[in-house]
Each structure stands twice: as C-alpha cells, then as structure tokens.
C-alpha cells in the first residue's frame, strides 16, 4: 500500500521538477504568455473581420437570391450591379474555401505584405479573410432559414428592405446561427496554430520552441494542448449561457 | 358606410409566375368604408390578387391606383403607401423575438409615425379593444392561434392604415378560435374601416360584406351584394362553388 503512495509521490515530484525546469528556469514561461497573447489577438481580430465580411457577403448573396427574379424582369440597372457583386462573392468563397489556410497565410505574408515584418497583423488579415468565407455561408443559411412571412410582415408594415433585415430578420438569424458560429470560432482558434509558419510566436510555436530548447517534449506540448482545451471549454460554456438567455426571451 | 371616394382601383391587373397566368386582367374599385369579400376556389388567384394590392406580388401588367397614385409606377416609394395599407396573413407572421407590445410599436416608432410613448399608448388601447391588454408583455409563442391573429390585426391597426387587407385570416386557426377573430373583424367593419378580405367564411361574407367578388381562373367571374351572389348566383362556376362550400 505504502508503495503505491510512494510511486505517486515520486511521479508528482518529478512532474514538479520538470515543470520547474521547462517553464520557470530562464523565465521560459514568458514565451508561453506571449504565445497565448498572440493566439488570442489573431483569433479575436480574425473573428471580427470574419463577421464583418460575413455580414456583407451574406447580405449581398441573400438579397440577390430573394430578388433576382423580380429585378431581372424589371430590368433595372441595380440588377446588374447586384449580379456582379454576387459573382465576386462567389469567386471569393470558391477560392478561399478551396485552398488551405496555411497556404493563404503564407501567400499573405510572403507575397502580399512583403514589407510587413510583424506576422501578427498579417495573421489577423489572412485568418480574417479565411474565416469570412465560412461565416458568410453560416449567415446566409441563417437568413434563408427565416420564414419569408416574417419578411413580408415587415414590408407590409411599411418598413423598407434594410429596416426589415435589421430589425426583423437579422436578430432571429443571429439566434439560429449562434451554435454554428461558435463552432467556427473554435475552429478558428485552433487553426491559428499554424501562424508559426510566418514567424509568429503563437501558443503552439512557443511550446514547440521551449521543447526544442529543453529537449523535453512532454511538458510543453501537453501544456499547450491543455491551454487550447481550457479556452475552448470556457468559450463553449459562455455561448451555451448566451443561447439559453436568448431562448428564454423567446418562449 | 360605403362612400363615393375610390380608395383602390385596379386596371387590367395581370400576374404570371413563370408560364402560369394567375391573374388575367382584374378591373375593380374599392371605395372608402367598403368591405369587399373575395371568394373563390383554391388556386383561383384570390390571394395573389390581394397580395398585388400592396405589391407583395408585383403585377406583370396593369395598374393599381391607391388614393389616386399609381403604385405600380417604379418611381414611387412603395414603403410610404404600404404604411397606409395594413395586412393580416394566414400564418399570423408575428415577430417571435419581440413582445406583443414591441410587435405593435416597432413599425410606427421606426418609421417616425409616433413617439415610443404615443405608440405604446395606442397599442395598449387597441389591445384593450380586442381583449388582450393583459398579454402586452407576452411573446407570440405564449399566445393561442386566435390571440396571435388578434395581435396581428391590431399590429396592422397601430400604423393607422386607411385600408386593411386580410389574406385568409382564419384558415390556419382551430375551429373554436375562428369566432374571436371574426368578431374583431366585424367590429372593425362596423367602425367604418375599408377592408378587403379573402376568406372561406361564407357566413362572414353574408353578414359583413358590402360587396362579394367571386374570382375564378384569374378573373372576376361574378360580383355583387351578398344577397345577389349567394341568393341568385348566375354563372355555373359560382353555383358549383357555392354548392361545395355551403
């Protein structure tokens, strides 16, 4: 019996020793903190860009889908502008969803923003553009899933297209897409782990660097995994809470 | 209650969906204060006719004059005219994310027709009239079908429209709730509201209508007072229709 306790105690002792060696010596934990900061910065910045792009594209695409028949018949010039914008959006979606995010990131860093040395803003840009494509389709699906009667009710009261979208459709859409949007956020957070390709010290890169320096892989990599896991769990809990609150206002 | 002022006038109104001609030339007038009930078999175009009146369906040909303005003219701002035309749908179409009160006040407030306070006072007095004053802060999902439709009616009234369009307002209701909605509509008609009602409730048509339109195959096949239409139908199609529904 005492043997088992002894073994466990020894294991914890060696773990503590390893932790001390890997993170505390030479203040290596500061690299992890910098990495975490960069990961959070890139994720939040990209999410923000993604949502803005998503709203714009979803608005263009669903406006086109809803009105193309009527507008084509009336032959107004607005139809051709909208059709052109819709085409641009489709090209964007196809290209972005059809290529790996690492490749997009490297193209941004090495080809587009050649003179920018800091990888963090480039990362925000590249991941934002990437995320925008997915968020756009999430929002568009959300808008299309709202019963057309809601739209007609808004218009019949005299609200114009934009007012109806803004006050009637989008609030309902947002609630419907929240779980999917949360999924996208989680995916984005984890995708940023390739930011190291363009020299950004993100969480993954920091862990890897420490592992390389100390020749100890267990502690840094497991720590990195645990930090991602904890962030995702906190996020999921927050969104769950928000969802419950939105639902309670509805029933 | 009918006056001589023409509120809505349609001239040669046509509507096609692709190759299917739904309306094949409708000419009619709705006078201020008049209650016009539109009947006809399903697929006859009666709902489409009603929905073209506020341009929820844009006509393929013909004109619609509302208060003297041709609203089929693409240069006019249809939103201004829709503010004067209340509409009630078969499926209620209340906004599920808003309370009853917000459902009613959102349009007048956002369109600057009333301050928030004025709109809420008006909404509460309208709710009082339809016996739902205590449900002002409820959400639509907490209401019965009949209550939802009564809210939908007062939501449209909150914009103080000149005409009310009803698109089969009782067709989605459980039978025991039809009466409460029809009562509200009757009271509205007695107050002198101009109404165009698409319905299968022949009792309502007999009792309340000033004029009944029988639409079939995209045209007005027959029209007249309820006595004429129900008492002495002329066309065989109307006779056939009435024999099936009454």
What descriptors fit this protein?
heterodimer; A: mainly alpha; elongated; B: 246 residues; alpha/beta; 4-stranded antiparallel β-sheet; 26% strand
What does this protein structure show overall?
The complex is a heterodimer of chains A (251) and B (246). Chain A is an all-alpha fold and 251 residues long. Helix content of chain A is 85%, strand content 0%. Chain A has helices at 2-24, 29-74, 77-98, 101-112, 119-145, 148-156, 161-191, 203-214, 218-248. In chain A, helix 2 packs antiparallel against helix 8 and helix 4 (101-112) crosses helix 5. Chain A is elongated and about 85 Å long. Chain A starts with a helix and ends with a helix. Chain B is 37% helix and 26% strand. Chain B has helices at 46-53, 78-82, 100-110, 116-129, 145-157, 175-190, 202-208, 226-231, 236-245; strands at 6-17, 20-31, 35-39, 61-66, 69-70, 85-88, 163-167, 194-198, 211-216, 219-224. In chain B, strand 9 (211-216) and strand 10 form a beta hairpin. The mean pLDDT of chain B is 94. The chains are: A mainly alpha (251), B alpha/beta (246). The interface between A and B is medium-sized, with 25 and 29 residues.
Secondary-structure topology with pairs:
The complex is a heterodimer of chains A (251) and B (246).
Chain A: H1 2-24, H2 29-74, H3 77-98, H4 101-112, H5 119-145, H6 148-156, H7 161-191, H8 203-214, H9 218-248
Helix pairs in contact in A: 2-3, 2-5, 2-8, 3-5, 4-5, 5-7, 6-7, 7-9, 8-9
Chain B: E1 6-17, E2 20-31, E3 35-39, H1 46-53, E4 61-66, E5 69-70, H2 78-82, E6 85-88, H3 100-110, H4 116-129, H5 145-157, E7 163-167, H6 175-190, E8 194-198, H7 202-208, E9 211-216, E10 219-224, H8 226-231, H9 236-245
Parallel strand pairs in B: 3-8, 3-9, 6-7, 7-8
Antiparallel strand pairs in B: 1-2, 1-4, 4-5, 9-10
